[in-house]
Amino acid sequence: MKIVFMGTPDFAVESLKALIKSSHEVCAVVTIPDKKQGRGLKIKSSPVKQFAEKYHISVLQPESFKDSDFIEQLRNYSTDCFVVVAFKILPKEIFTIPKLGTVNVHGSLLPAYRGAAPINWAIMNGDLESGVTTMLIDSKVDTGDMLLQDKTIISENMTAGELHDILAEKGAALLVQSLDKLAAGVINPIAQDNTKATKAPKINNLTALIDLEKPARDVHNQIRGLSPYPGAYSFVNDKKIKLLQSEVIISPKKESAGKIIEVTDKSFSIACENNAIKILQVQLEGKRKMTSRDFLNGYKLTVGDCFKIIKP
Fold first, then answer.
1. Residue partners of 172: CB distance under 8 A and separation at least 6
2. What is the pLDDT of residues 79-132, one digit of tens each?
3. Measured between alpha carbons, how far is 115 from 203 in angstroms, rounded to an integer?
């Protein structure tokens, strides 16, 4: 099939890579405009654009989906299908252009976790499994008829970054399978059960603020669900610190939530509403990520110091 691919981040690159290797033809790629990024404000292209250019694929970067010239370009490709992975919400005027519709790869087992951050929320909620879904886009967000799904186990200490990489690969493989079946006319889209739908809203600053008055398991899930980005954070000794890797430890004695109950050369442990969390990786504001060992070599924490309790 002839395809126009739409996407932006690394998660989408895996799907584009799989399409290029498949029997389908990628006529063009649509991604966001280049942006100034970093301290030097250098112009940077999206990961999808960078990958597409390696294969000399035409790249479209519209400022607006209402741009009539852009819409006409899409029509002129005479594609069988559009593919969307981790991109913007498309208007009906665009996603209805191809005769077979527009296929989306979503990082959850729909109808669970409709929205912008399904991977983060699955881990933050302590789910034991996740997966990817291919679906046909309709007018609402992540509500279209489903094509295929693939599941994966979420292990006890798996981070959002690790699950992201697993689902990116699974999603890429599932996309090719879905397109193959769609082209052959041997796939039957299945309507989602809206009564089972849950939401995965965009992560904000309050979502990332750690409440240490919650059980240790919940705090651990929040830390790993927001690692490596944007990073769950708290405050100790008037410094903002992101906690990026943790383990739940059983604390035989109940301590005040937020209190540091142990400091070793490799880690430090913080009391929660019940039990405690051992911190293995951190990032001070404005600094690089580092192991707790490296952090403790340059920053003094002692038993009895307390992380600030702030309610989100």
1. 14, 15, 17, 18, 105
2. 999 999 999 999 999 999 999 999 999 999 999 999 999 999 999 999 999 999
3. 10
Report the 10 Å Cβ neighbour count for 255: 17
Q: Which amino acid is at 207?
A: T
Whether 157 and 22 share a structural domain: yes
Which stretches of the chain are DSSP H helices? 10-21, 47-54, 68-76, 92-95, 118-124, 160-184, 205-208, 216-225, 292-298
Q: Which of 262, 266, 206 is nearest to 234 (CA)?
A: 206
CATH code of the domain covering residue 211: 3.10.25.10
Which of 174, 196, 218 represents a domain boundary (last residue)?
196
3-state secondary structure string, 234-254? EEECCEEEEEEEEEEECCCCC
Of 175, 177, 154, the C-alpha closest to 164 is 154
pTM over 0.90: yes
Q: How far is CA 205 from CA 11, 123, 159, 230, 234, in A?
A: 22, 18, 19, 9, 11
Between CA 266 and CA 294 the distance in angstroms is: 8
SS3 category, 289: coil
113 and 262, same domain (yes or no):
no
Give the residue among 68, 69, 98 at the shortest CA–CA distance from 6: 98
Residue 178 sits in the same domain as residue 216: no
Left if phi > 0, otherwise alpha if psi is -120 to 50, otherwise beta: which for 121?
Answer: alpha
**Residue 298 pLDDT > 80:** yes
* Domain region containing 223: 205-298
Strands 268-271 and 260-263: antiparallel
Cα–Cα distance measured from residue 121 to residue 124, given in angstroms and rounded to the nearest whole number: 5
Q: Which two tokens stand for residue 6?
A: 């739409």
* Tally of domains in the chain: 2
Q: In the structure encoding, which two tokens stand for residue 169, read together? A: 């690969």
Q: Is residue 74 part of a domain?
A: yes
